[in-house]
Amino acid sequence: MARIERKNFINRKNKRLLAEESELTRISTLKKRLIRVRIQTRPYSIFHGLGIYFCGYCGKPMDLYTPRAFTEGERIPTLYYACRDKCKHSVPHRTDFVDRIVMQLVQKRVKENLKKPRKTKGYEEILEKFRLIDELQSERMRLLTKMHYASYNRDAVLAEIREVEEKIEKMKDEVASHFGEDFSGSPLLYPLFETPPEELMDLDFMYLREIARIFVIVFALLTSFYFFAFVR
Asked: Using one digit for the tens of pLDDT, what is the confidence trace for 84-115?
C-alpha cells in the first residue's frame, strides 16, 4: 500500500512539474510574439497610457502589447499588458482581466472609504466633459499625425495643436472641480455605488479611465498592480 501511495505521489508531482513547464513554455512563446501597440489616436484599455502601471520585478512601465499588428479601424486582437523590457520573470496579462479586477478593487475601496453621493445632479454633465476630452484627444492625435507628414504650414498646425491642448487642460480642470478635498459626495462617484461589480465595465470608458487615474493613486493600489506582475 505504501509503495502504491508513493508511486501515486510521484506521478502527481511529475504531472504538476510537466504542467508548470508547459505553462512556462507557453508564457515564453507569448512574450516573444507580442509587439507593442504604437497607435496613439485613442486608448485601447483602461490603463493604456495612464503611466500608473509598473512591472513588479524591474519597475519599468507595463505597456500595451498585441500578438499581431493592427491599424485603426481593424478588428482589435486580444491585448495584453506586459513589461516594456520584457524582463525574465514578468508575465503578460490580458487587459480585460487586469482592467476588470483592478476597477472592481477601486470600486470596493471607494464604497468602503467614501460617502455615497446624496444626489446625482451633475453626473451627466461630467460624463459629457469626459466625452469631449476623448474627442479632443483624438483631434490632437490627428493633428500630430498631420504635422508629421506636413511639408509646409507646420506653424499653423502647431498652433492648432496648442489650442486643442489648452482646451483639454481646461476640461480636465472643470472635471477636477467636482471633487472636494476628500472626494466624498462627488456626483462622479454615484455609479460606483449603484453599479453591481459584474456590470462595472459597462460604464463609460473615459469615466472608468478617470476613476482609475485618480483612485489607484489615492488608495495606493500600485501594490495590487505589482501583484499582477508576479502572477504565474
From this structure: 888 888 888 899 999 999 999 999 988 888 88
Closest CA to 59 of 90, 37, 33: 90
Pair 144, 38: CB distance under 8 Å: no
* Strands 35-36, 80-83: pairing kind: unpaired
CA distances to 3, 17, 21, 23 from 9, rounded to whole Å, are 10, 12, 18, 21
Q: Helices 222-230 and 95-113: crossing angle, nearest 10°?
A: 150
With bands split at pLDDT 50, 70 and 90, how would you rate the model's confidence at 26? Answer: low
Helix, strand or coil for residue 61? Answer: strand
The owner of cell 501511495 is: 5
Q: Is the CA virtual torsion 22, 23, 25, 30 positive or negative?
A: positive
